[in-house]
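Structure first, sequence second, as always.
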C-alpha cells in the first residue's frame, strides 16, 4: 500500500487549499478512503471519509468547510479545504478506511497570518 499526500503549505486564515492523495497497492475503487490530521501536541483526529459510492462523512469541526472527493480512474482522493482557521493547522494524512497504520507520510498545513 502506498499513499503520497500532496504538498500542503502556509495559508492565511479564511483561505483555501486542496490536498490530493494518489494511492496504489490495493483496490482503490472499492475502498473507503479517509483523511485525518494531527495538530502539534495532539493525537490523530479523524476528518472525513468517502465511500466507493461517494457517500461522505465529516467531523463536526470541518463540516461545511471541507469537501472530500475521489477520482477512481486516477486512484486519488482529495480534500478541498475552505475558510481555513488557525486551528486547522496540522499534518494531514490519508489512508484506506481509517486504517491509519497504512497512512502516508502526511503533509503539513499551516494556517496563519
Amino acid at each position: 500500500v502506498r499513499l503520497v499526500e500532496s504538498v500542503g503549505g502556509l495559508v492565511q486564515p479564511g483561505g483555501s487549499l486542496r490536498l490530493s492523495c494518489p494511492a496504489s497497492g490495493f483496490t482503490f475503487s472499492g475502498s473507503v478512503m479517509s483523511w485525518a490530521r494531527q495538530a502539534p501536541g495532539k493525537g490523530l483526529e479523524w476528518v472525513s471519509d468517502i465511500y466507493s459510492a461517494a457517500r461522505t462523512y465529516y467531523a463536526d469541526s470541518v463540516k461545511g468547510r471541507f469537501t472530500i472527493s475521489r477520482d477512481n480512474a486516477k486512484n486519488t482522493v482529495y480534500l478541498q479545504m475552505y475558510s481555513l482557521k488557525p486551528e486547522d493547522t496540522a499534518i494531514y494524512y490519508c489512508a484506506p478506511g481509517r486504517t491509519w497504520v497504512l497512512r502516508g507520510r502526511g503533509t503539513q498545513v499551516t494556517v496563519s497570518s
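Margin note: The chain has a mean pLDDT of 95.
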